[in-house]
Amino acid sequence: MADISRRFGWRHLRSAPTSHIRHHKNGRPAHDGAGLSFWFQPLSAALSEVPVNDRELTMAFHARTADFQDVTVQATVTYRISEPGNAADRLDFSIDPDTGIWRGDPLEQLSTLLTETAQQHALDVLARTELAAALADGVAAVRERIAAGLAAESRLPATGIEVVAVRVVAIRPEPEVERALRTPARERIQQEADRATYERRAVAVERERTIAENELASRIELARREEQLVEQRGTNTRREAEEAAAADAVRTEAEAARTVRLAQAEAEAARASGEAKAGAQAAWLQVHGEADAATLHALAATRLAENLPRIDSLTLSPDMLTTLLDRLGRGERP
After folding, report:
1. CA 202, CA 198: separation in Å to the nearest integer?
2. What pLDDT was estimated at residue 292?
3. Is the separation of the CB atoms in 21 and 15 below 8 Å?
4. How far apart are CA 195 and CA 322, in angstroms?
5. Closest alpha carbon to 55 in 108, 91, 121, 128
6. How many CB atoms lie within 10 A of CB 59?
């Protein structure tokens, strides 16, 4: 919308760069262009403002497929007014010289023209397409048909309208039909999910079984090794006992042989000692048998003296000394 200000009965118009302004003064063109700014007299001026920027037109309409199913088509058409002079000649883009507001609704007329043209071509395509195909591949087909139909529409270039792009957002059936169509897909997805769950559980069970078998095999191997260990320990214990018994037997035999040797040696020593003692006794007796009585008495006295206790002092009375001397003089023993 143009910005119009008042000064002393004059009006000043200032437009945006995306607006094309046409100013007629007394029926003759005075200004024609985009982004203009000028003074004018409202009583002799006729003003038109045509937007030249790109505009988005969203449309939604119902259609029926070849199998008599109702669908809703959602589409967007991007357009611009490339010839603002033609648009101003064919549609009412005049604005109020005091407020700058359109007197009519030209953009609504453009929207109606584009919507009806696009809807006509979309209905023509969907009327020959079954619902399943329309839902699967209908978006591309409808988009191409609408774009081609708008490009071939002669009224649009005559009005100065250029279609920039066409987009079909969706083609949707009625809610009941959509739910009915979703059911098999949902069941199939659920079946896939259930199968994946069962497969995952089967894999988990198989893994658990493998783990259990591995644990059982490990226990069996451990028990077998323990049995071998016990058997080896028994063998080692038995071998140690046998070796200890053999060592004891050898030690006993050695002790017995040693004892026998000691006994024999002691017996031999005793016999030799006895023989020596007997020989010495016999020699002693023989010597004593051949000796005279005085010698024997002297030996006896000597032995007696050897066996008598120690005598520190001896007192002889005169009588005893007289008797001993008398006996010695007669050659008698004391």
Report:
1. 6
2. 66
3. yes
4. 153
5. 108
6. 18
| Count of CB atoms situated within 10 Å of the CB of 277 | 12
Distance, CA of 316 to CA of 132 (rounded, Å): 171
pLDDT in tens, 197-240: 888 899 899 899 999 999 999 999 999 888 889 888 888 888 88
pLDDT the model gives residue 181: 79
**Measured distance between the N- and C-terminal CA atoms of the chain, rounded to whole angstroms:** 188
SS3 string of 134-165? HHHHHHHHHHHHHHHHHHHCCHHHHHCEEEEE
Task: Give the per-residue pLDDT at 167.
Answer: 93
Check whether 291 has a pLDDT greater than 80. no
Of the candidates 19, 37, 79, the residue with the CA atom closest to the CA atom of residue 54? 79
User: pLDDT at residue 168 above 90?
Assistant: yes
Q: How many residues does the chain have?
A: 334
R_g over Cα of the chain:
75
Contact, 71 vs 38, CB < 8 A?
no
Could you tell me how far CA 2 lies from the centroid of its own chain? 66
* Residue 111: burial class (beta carbons within 10 Å; 0-12, 13-18, 19+): middle
Residue-level pLDDT at 114: 92
SS3 of residue 248 by DSSP? helix
State how far the Cα of 270 lies from the Cα of 278, in Å rounded to an integer.
Answer: 12
DSSP designation for 103: S
Specify whether the CB–CB gap between 79 and 147 falls below 8 A: no
Please choose, from the candidates 15, 3, 23, the residue with its C-alpha nearest in 3D space to the C-alpha of residue 85: 23
Q: What is the pTM of this model?
A: 0.54
Is the separation of the CB atoms in 20 and 33 below 8 Å? yes
Q: How far apart are CA 323 and CA 188, in angstroms?
A: 161
The pLDDT > 70 percentage for the chain reads 86
- How many other C-beta atoms can be found within 10 angstroms of the C-beta atom of residue 74? 15
SS3 (DSSP) at 32: strand
Q: How many CB atoms lie within 10 A of CB 60?
A: 14
Instruction: Give the residue carrying structure tokens 């064919």.
Output: 90
